[in-house]
Q: What sequence folds into this?
C-alpha cells in the first residue's frame, strides 16, 4: 500500500503509527529470544488496538544518544521486520537514516522509510529512488547528540518550510515522486519548548506544501516540561497534543499509546462528521 496516497484521499482518515523501539540490549546478537518475542507481542497488541503503521527504530535519536553502527542497526531491525511481515498484514515503517539499512528494509518488505535526517545522508536518495516505498522527511536542526544545546531560527515555521521545499526538490530531482512523500516538522529535534509549541499552534501552515503531515509528540519533553511529569505519566498530554495536531491537519500521528490515541481520534472524527452540516 502507498501510505501517502491513502492519507491524501478525499475522506482522509487519520492514521496511527505505533512506535516499536528496538533497544541496544535487546536482540542485536540474535540470541535473546525473549526480547524478540516481546516485540512481536507488542506488535500484535498494537494491531488489535487499531494501529495502521508499525514504526521500527534501531537507532536512538533521543537528545544525547550515541551513534549505532550500520551492522548493529541492521541486526536490530531487519529480523523483526521479516518476522512482522511473515506473521501480520500490517504496514511497517523503518526509522533509519542509513542507506544500507534502508536498502535491506526495502528488500524485506518495508512499506515506508521514516528518516529523521530527511534522506540527506549519502546514498539515501538513490536507494529510495530505486524503490516504491513511502518516505517521511523529518526536519531536525543539528544532530541528536547536541541538537538541544542552542536551537535557533529566524522563524521556526518558515525555516522548516524552506527546508521541506529544498528536500522535496532534491527528491524530485532523483525521480522520487512527490506522491511518495510525507512531511514531519520534528518535534523535539533541535527545538526549544517555545519552538515546539509554535510548531503545534501553527501546524496547519505546513499544509501549504500539499503533502500529508506526520506529528510525533508522544511522551516527549515538550509535554514533560509543561506538566512536570516523568515519561511514564504523559498520556493525557500526549493525547491532547495528538488531537490538536489532527485538528490542524495531521494525517499520521506517531505514538506509544495506540489504543488511547485511536479512541481519541475516533471521537474527534465523529465530531467532524457533524461540524460541517449544521
Ligand atoms: C520522531 C521520529 C518524530 C518521526 C523519533 C521519540 C524520539 N520520527 N523518531 N517523527 N521521534 N518521523 O520518539 O521520542 O517526531 S525518536
A:
Amino acid at each position: 500500500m502507498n501510505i501517502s496516497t491513502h492519507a491524501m484521499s478525499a475522506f482522509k482518515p487519520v492514521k496511527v503509527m505505533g512506535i516499536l523501539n528496538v533497544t541496544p540490549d535487546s536482540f542485536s546478537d540474535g540470541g535473546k529470544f525473549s526480547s524478540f518475542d516481546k516485540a512481536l507481542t507488542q506488535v500484535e497488541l498494537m494491531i488489535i488496538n487499531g494501529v495502521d503503521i508499525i514504526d521500527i527504530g534501531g537507532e536512538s535519536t533521543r537528545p544525547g544518544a550515541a551513534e549505532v553502527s550500520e551492522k548493529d542497526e541492521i541486526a536490530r531491525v531487519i529480523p523483526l521486520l521479516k518476522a512482522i511481515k511473515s506473521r501480520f498484514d500490517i504496514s511497517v515503517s523503518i526509522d533509519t537514516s542509513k542507506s544500507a539499512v534502508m536498502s535491506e528494509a526495502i528488500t524485506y518488505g518495508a512499506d515506508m522509510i521514516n528518516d529523521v535526517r530527511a534522506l540527506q545522508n549519502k546514498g539515501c536518495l538513490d536507494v529510495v529512488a530505486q524503490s516504491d516505498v513511502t518516505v517521511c522527511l523529518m526536519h531536525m536542526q543539528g544532530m541528536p547528540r547536541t541538537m538541544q544545546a542552542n536551537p535557533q531560527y529566524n522563524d521556526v515555521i518558515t525555516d522548516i518550510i524552506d527546508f521541506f521545499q529544498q528536500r522535496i526538490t532534491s527528491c524530485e530531482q532523483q525521480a522520487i515522486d512527490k506522491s511518495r512523500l510525507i512531511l514531519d516538522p520534528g518535534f523535539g529535534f533541535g527545538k526549544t519548548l517555545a519552538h515546539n509549541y509554535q510548531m503545534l499552534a501553527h501546524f496547519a501552515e505546513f499544509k501549504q506544501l500539499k503533502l500529508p503531515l506526520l506529528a510525533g509528540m508522544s511522551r516527549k519533553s515538550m509535554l514533560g516540561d509543561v506538566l512536570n511529569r516523568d515519561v511514564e505519566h504523559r498520556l493525557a498530554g500526549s493525547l491532547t497534543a495528538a488531537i490538536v495536531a489532527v485538528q490542524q491537519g495531521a494525517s499520521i500521528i506517531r505514538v506509544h499509546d495506540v489504543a488511547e490515541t485511536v479512541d481519541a481520534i475516533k471521537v474527534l472524527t465523529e465530531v467532524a462528521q457533524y461540524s460541517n452540516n449544521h
